[in-house]
Amino acid sequence: MGIAATIQQPAEGLMVPGKKSLEPILKTENLWKLYRAGKVDVPALRGVNFAVAPGESVAVMGPSGCGKSSLLYVIGGLAQASKGRVLVDGNDLTAMSDAERTKLRRSKIGFVFQRFNLLPTLTAKGNIAIAQFIHGDGFDPHRFDVVTGLLGLAGRLQHKPSELSGGEQQRVAIARAIINEPKILLADEPTGNLDSKNSEVVLEMLRQLNKDLGQTIVMITHNPEATTYFDRVVHMRDGVIVDGVPAD
Amino acid sequence: MMGELIVRNLLHRPLRTLIGVLAVAVEVALVVLIVGLTSGLLTETAKRIEGIGADVMLQPPAASVFIGMTGAPMPIKIGDKLAELKYVQSVAPALLQFSSSGGVDVVYGIDSDSFRAVSGGFVFLQGHDMEGPDDLLVDDLAAAAKHIQVGDTFKLLNHDWHVAAIIEHGKGARLFVPLATLQDLVGAPDKASIFWLKCTRPEHTEDVMDEIRHLLPGYTVRPLSSLLSLMTSTNIPGLQTFIDAMIWLAVAIGLLVIFLTMYTTVIERTRDIGVLKSLGAGRAFIVRALLTESAGLCVMGIVAGVGLSYVVRAAFLAGFPTLSILITWPWILRAAGIALAGALLGASYPAWMASRKDAVEALSYD
């Protein structure tokens, strides 16, 4: 079933390949995002309709400037929508204040960025632990060990980001993003700064998280090969989604 | 975790942290030392005057508690009248004169016998009591500061004095000369600036003071026991204002440096702030993190400032033994409080600015 068709029937379930029909954990309805450039409003998103089922992995592709990152920031609650609705696990982000979106982001969203965005003063361990600290549940050593073991970071935890390779840094960033068991993991070109070998490692880890742990993932990428690791690929152009087909 | 983040942030830019710490240290040291110097000098002066051992002092009408500021308008014969009062054991007149040669001093012109009767006499470390008209007694601290030895000739008030003795400090002045010679030198024959009175028993102090008030209405009569509480900066016109101005200046230095430090910190960490926001850190978390970092920097500055105060005091006292710098815990705590408040105030705008940063813009900051 194509995503375009799915979003026309939001009340109905989504069909994820190999998974049961589920209510979407993420859904946008006629989502607009305008940026002010001088005296002109420049639309980055022009009525995006998009839905993701729990446990689904979706790759969003498109040329530079098509609105992929804007979509990610809006559905992640980092940016406010100009018009339309964003529903995350049933919560309407567009009706929320900045503080409420922050709270929701803390509990339901994990981010992975192209430039890793680790805090340079903290060690790998500190970078992961601070997410737990901000989440408010304190340091959970069991969860920490499971996640860092899963991502193969056990021997690198006392190193600062500047002492880690790009692949290791991105794995730390993934660990930080999933340490609090978010409902949705949003990744903004996570392999964009990595060589092909490290890209494969990171993509394989994302697939493992999705398949083994049922982690919902939405990833932006320029790399067509990367989409093969995902359940579905969505193409964007000029601020709208132009198709949505299951990946081969 | 917050503590680790703050410590690592402070260590990440050691030079910037050091500058911030130094600014707070200078702020704290300035407050502690300015107040310590003022109160130290006043307290030390008061203790020295108390050390004379008199029970009552008599000054001309409207005289200041800072006795060196008083001229010599009282006839010396008043002393005879005072000696006749009931409960008065002994009376010692003194003529006080400012001297600015080789430092600011108050020279006491005294009559050896009467001063000894009131004070119990000097403790002579070297030399002997005044015997000739040009004899000078110098206390040990002044002797060390001015490099004076017994037998030296010392020029004071445009007069050459013979240093007769080095005495133990704590008996009013640091320099003592014969009363008659000083009266001649300053053109105040048969005059005295002050009379020290020793009562037959300390309990009679009030009775003696009442008698003096009756005998010499309008004259200033004070018990020596209250001198310490009267010798405060608030009793010197303009001094408290000067101290307040210096404290505000110190606070302004600390506040501006902290502001600049935290402002540059926020600019430099713009991306980190975006990251924290992406992790779900709210405005309160970011404000708390930056204010705590500023407070941490301030605490290090306070510790350094207290240490610096003691080092500067030791250096001053080594160079100027007659100085007295009184460093007290109440003022250390007050200076710490002032510095902490200044640091939090200085960091509050950068923290507020950081908390309001747009997360998306912050994440794309280079």
Task: Describe this structure in a few short sentences.
The complex is a heterodimer of chains A (248) and B (366). Chain A is an alpha/beta fold and 248 residues long. In chain A, 31% of the residues lie in helices and 27% in strands.
Report the CATH C-level class of chain A: Alpha Beta
The Cα radius of gyration of chain A reads 17 Å
Question: Would you tell me the structural class of the helices and strands of chain B?
Answer: alpha+beta
Poorly predicted sequence stretches spanning 5 or more consecutive residues of chain A: 1-13
CATH topology of chain A: Rossmann fold
What is the terminal separation of chain B in angstroms?
A: 26 Å
Structural class of the helix and strand makeup of chain A?
alpha/beta
User: Numbering strands along the chain, what is their spatial order in the largest sheet of chain A?
Assistant: 6-7-8-3-9-10
Cα radius of gyration of chain B in angstroms: 29 Å
**Proportion of strand residues of chain A:** 25-35%
CATH architecture grouping of chain A: 3-Layer(aba) Sandwich
Question: What does this 3D model show about the protein?
Answer:
The complex is a heterodimer of chains A (248) and B (366). Chain A contains 7 helices and 10 strands. By secondary structure, chain A is of the alpha/beta class. Chain A has one domain: P-loop containing nucleotide triphosphate hydrolases (Rossmann fold, 3-Layer(aba) Sandwich), CATH 3.40.50. In chain A, the strands form 2 sheets. In chain A, strands 6-7-8-3-9-10 form a 6-stranded mixed beta sheet. Chain B is α+β, with helices and mostly antiparallel strands and 366 residues long. Chain B folds into 2 domains: 2-44 and 238-363, no CATH class; 61-218, no CATH class. Chain B has helices at residues 2-12, 14-50, 78-83, 112-119, 140-146, 179-186, 205-215, 227-230, 239-268, 270-278, 283-319, 329-355, 359-363, and strands at 56-59, 74-75, 88-99, 105-110, 124-127, 135-139, 153-156, 159-167, 175-178, 191-192, 194-199, 220-223. In chain B, strands 1, 3, 4, 5, 6, 7, 8, 9, 11 and 12 form a 10-stranded mixed beta sheet that branches. In chain B, strands 2-10 form a two-stranded antiparallel sheet. In chain B, β3 and β4 form a beta hairpin. In chain B, α11 (283-319) packs antiparallel against α12 (329-355). The radius of gyration of chain B is 29 Å and the shape is elongated. The relative contact order of chain B is 0.19. The mean pLDDT of chain B is 89. Chain A binds chain B through residues 73, 76, 78-79, 99, 102-103, 105-107, 109, 111, 113, 117-122, 126, 129-135, 139, 176, and chain B through 1-2, 4-5, 8-9, 11-12, 271-272, 274-283, 285, 358-360, 363.
